[in-house]
Amino acid sequence: MTLILRPVGRGNWRPQTFTVDERHVPPMLVRVGERFSLGGVLFRIAKVLP
Questions:
Q1: HSE-up of 15 (CA within 13 Å, CB side)?
Q2: Residues paired with residue 6 on neighbouring β-strands, in sequence order
Q3: What tens digit of pLDDT does each residue of 2-39 get?
Q4: How far apart are CA 46 and CA 4, in angstroms?
Q5: If phi over 0 gives left and psi between -120 and 50 gives alpha, with beta otherwise, what is residue 32?
């Protein structure tokens, strides 16, 4: 599963790609628009790709 992330807040930041190898982690339930913190930066999920 691949997540396309954008930082929350002002500015035109380049999207970040976060790839999860589902063989090594339990299933993740995520949806577009959900926010989470990664490395001290608050991100918003812009797209979820299989």
A1: 12
A2: 44
A3: 999 999 988 888 999 999 888 888 888 889 999 989 88
A4: 5
A5: beta
Question: pTM for the whole thing?
Answer: 0.80
Cα–Cα separations (whole angstroms), residue 24 to 3, 19, 20, 21? 16, 12, 8, 6
State how far the Cα of 50 lies from the Cα of 40, in Å rounded to an integer.
Answer: 26
Enter the tokens of residue 22: 């589902």
CA atoms within 13 A on the CB side of 14: 2
> Which residue bears the tokens 């608050």?
42
Q: How many CB atoms within 10 Å of residue 34?
A: 12
Quote the CA–CA distance of 41 and 8 in Å, as a whole number.
8
